[in-house]
Design a protein that fits this description.
By secondary structure, the protein is mainly alpha-helical. The protein is built from five helices and no strands.
């Protein structure tokens, strides 16, 4: 009984964190669409990746909004959580992996801590919740 309560508490904490990810990444995606230059200039390390390209920044903004929407729908619709979390993880996980590989290859910059907090940790939490959801629904192999 106590073990079940602790699992439920952990799930609630992880789900609450994922709601924060939805809010943050929806705002981020909207900023990229509405003010791409403001995002480019205001996000530490971004200008180090190359010259400003408004089309590319807006494309990434759409990816953020799409992944955040899949994540939000998964949070709202537990019956569809596994496929929706998986869709969200395709972007969030791939994006985090790319940043982690770049960091390991010495591409660290002033925004590295922010990258870990805003990109890598949310992807890890989403992966944990995806695995927990699959196990709970009997979809694990």
């Amino acid at each position: 009984m106590a073990e079940q309560k602790s699992k439920n508490l952990l799930d609630r904490i992880l789900l609450g964190f994922l709601w924060l990810v939805v809010l943050f990444d929806t705002g981020l995606g909207a900023q990229m669409l509405i003010m791409p230059m403001g995002w480019y200039e205001g996000t530490p390390g971004v200008s180090e990746t190359g010259p400003f390209n408004s089309h590319f920044v807006r494309d990434v903004g759409i990816a953020y909004l799409t992944a955040a929407a899949a994540l939000a729908l998964g949070l709202l619709k537990p019956a569809f959580r596994t496929p929706l979390f998986l869709i969200a993880f395709l972007f969030f996980g791939g994006h985090a992996l790319m940043h982690a590989v770049e960091m390991l290859h010495g591409h660290a910059h002033e925004g590295t801590i922010g990258e870990i907090i805003a990109i890598i940790i949310p992807a890890i939490v989403l992966l944990i919740m995806l695995i927990r959801t699959k196990k709970r629904t009997g979809e694990a192999s």
